[in-house]
Structures are given as structure tokens and as C-alpha cells.
Description:
The structure is a single chain. This protein is an alpha/beta fold. The protein has 3 domains: 184 residues, HAD superfamily/HAD-like (Rossmann fold), CATH 3.40.50.1000; 71 residues, Hypothetical Protein Ta0175, Chain: A, domain 2; 136 residues, Roll (Nuclear Transport Factor 2, Chain: A), CATH 3.10.450. The protein is built from 14 helices and 18 strands. It is elongated and about 75 Å long. The two termini are 33 Å apart.
Amino acid sequence: MDIMDRLNSSPRLMLVSDLDHTMVDHHDPENSSLLRFNALWEAYYRQDSLLVFSTGRSPTLYKQLRKEKPMITPDIAIMSVGTEITYGRSMVPDDGWVQFLNQKWDKNIVIEETSKFPELKPQAETEQRPHKVSFYVQKDKAKSVTQALSKVLEERGLNVKIIYSGGIDLDVLPNGAGKGQALAYLLKKFETEGKPPLNTLACGDSGNDAELFSIPGVYGVMVSNAQEELLQWHSENAKDNPKILHASERCASGIIEAIGHFKLGQNLSPRDVSDSRQENLSPYLEIVNFALLLEKWRRAEVENSELFIAGIKATVFPSAIIIHPSGSAHNAREYLNTFRKVYGDKKGKQYRIWVDDVVATQLAPGIWLVKFDKWELCGEERKACASTSIMSSRDSDWFNLVHVHQTWLEDSAKGEWFL
């Protein structure tokens, strides 16, 4: 539970979000809403809140999605429809959750009985997990199959839950599993540790997300593109619940909308602010804004002027050093002269920059050590480096750069890298 150790007190917000068609909009090739959320979270929430991804995807498909989309790293991942809980970048499993799910569960019996239903078409082997057996079934057959299968498995002494979602996916789980139960388990765990979240926001679009909205005290948002099955559940169970919002915005933009609707904190993403020099009062926001400024410069979305370059240099100490991922060291102010060479080199291209997992530690009054990953996406090519920066705000209203050290991330395609 290292993620909790980094928080001095209860998380200000625990945001629990489904991925496909909720956090991630597969109909948005620019990933604009996801990138808006990323900038908002890293600038204003990473330091004192928890991000939880809750997905029906197995770890295999979850990792695949992370390679396909510009996603930031969650503090906790709930996968395989709430049957697996892992922590942090290393995805350390929660052994207590595994032991809990083992009660009245026998995967072999489930496989034996489901094989007797020709309507059930097994999903890929990667989707068959220790506490989840998954199938495809036609919508018109789902109800009758679910009822018959529930009865058979109960007669075999198993206590199971069958979830139908997306108009085709049928998952057989231990009765204690599911996205809602996994969330309830986490909330109880944090309360036991004396750090219950001050607010929790659940976000979803399909039937297997309904459980998230059923946890007492939790705020919920159904994104505007929510599926019929979730809207029907809401109509039958929670239409008068003021804590559940049907957003007017799609996917991650709907999540941002809900943060503002429920007054849970800042909901103006740095990507939606034209002046990147506004209210740079934290090292988190400063890092996010600099990445966005570099993106705009290379996309020719800001004016090419000497005044711009002079302004950037003014935020850098004269003796500041930048160590490039290649290992070469440069005086930071001299290196920034190369800004001129890359102006507009990504104009008209699908070029985006985002930062991930920003962690700032105050070393002394006005002196900060900031660690983060910086990612660049240009078409299909992705590359990233781990950055360690020392920043100072002792003699200025703004943060000034003292030192930067960058190294390639292992899973990143190495290549040309500006800053």
C-alpha cells in the first residue's frame, strides 16, 4: 500500500473510472478528452488524490490499451470485472482480495457447466482469469441463459454472479466479485488504515458499471454515451438520486463535467486555458504547462517570437544543466536556443505531449524535486523519458528550473528527442 504512504492524509478525491468508452473514447482519434483529463489530473489531483481504473479487461488487454492510448498511470487497477486488484506502476496484486474471492468458487465446475450451453461462445484465453470465466452470447439469449446457468451452478454448491454487459459479454464471477464489491473492499481497507477518501466519484458507461453507483455515499457519472443497459438500470433504481449524473459530455469530458457538477475540485483542464502562465502556483501545474507549451510551439499554435524564447529562458537559472536522455549534458539556457529550430516541425500532425505520474517532494523552503514521465505521440510513434527536475520558487513568483536529468523509459521507442 505504498500509494497510501505517499498521502499525508485521506485522499481528497478517489476517482474510479471504467476505461473503454468512459475514460477512453475509441471514436476520438485525437484522444482530446483523454488528454484534457490527463492534464487536469496531473496538475491538480495527483499529489493528494487517488486514480483508480476499473475495467472488464484482463491484465493482458489492459496493458495493450495502455500501449494504444495516451493513458496516465493509475494508483490502483481493478481488472477482469472486479476480480483482480493491483497497486501502482508494478501492478502488485492484493492477496487479501484473492483469498476473499476463493470462497464458494470452483472455476473447473463453472467451465464444466457452461460447456453444456451451446449459446455461450468462450472469449479469448487471455480473458479467462482465476476468478472470471467469460463468454459471448447473443442479446436475445442472454436472459434465459443467465437464469438457467444461475440455477445449475447454485445446485452445484457455488455462489456466483453472472454479469451481462455491452450487449454481448457474459462473465461468470464469484458472488463477492464485481466492480462494486471491489470498490467497497478498497473503501473499507482505506477506512481501516484511517485514510478514507473525502469524496469518491465513480464513472461508467455500461451494465457492469452499475454496481459502482450502488456503493453508499459515492458520487456517480454516466457519460453521455452510456449504453442502454446502464440508462435502464438508472431509470429503475436511481433516477431520483441527486448523486448520480447523466453527463452531457462524452467519455473523459463527461468525467471532467461531473467533477465540476458535484463541486469536487478544479475542473478546468490546463489544456483549456489559453495563457499557460496563469496561476503557476505548484510544481505539478508548472510541469504540465511546460509540456503543453512545448507541444503548442512544435505544432505552431503559439506565435514564433524572440520574446517567447526570452520568456522561457527567464525561468531557467543561468547555471542550470539539462542532461539529455542520450547522456549529453548542456547548459540549459544555451540549449533552449534550439527552440527556434523546432518551431512548427509538427504542424498539421497528430503530435501530442503529456506527463504522467508527477511526484513533487519539497527539499527545502521553495526548493522542489520533481519526478515524472514525459510522453510524446506522433502518429503511431510513441517515445518517453523519465525526468528528474530540481525547481526553485524562492526568489520568484514562478518556478525556476535548476536542473533536469532525463533517461529513456525501457518500453519507449528511442529516437530524436528535443526536451
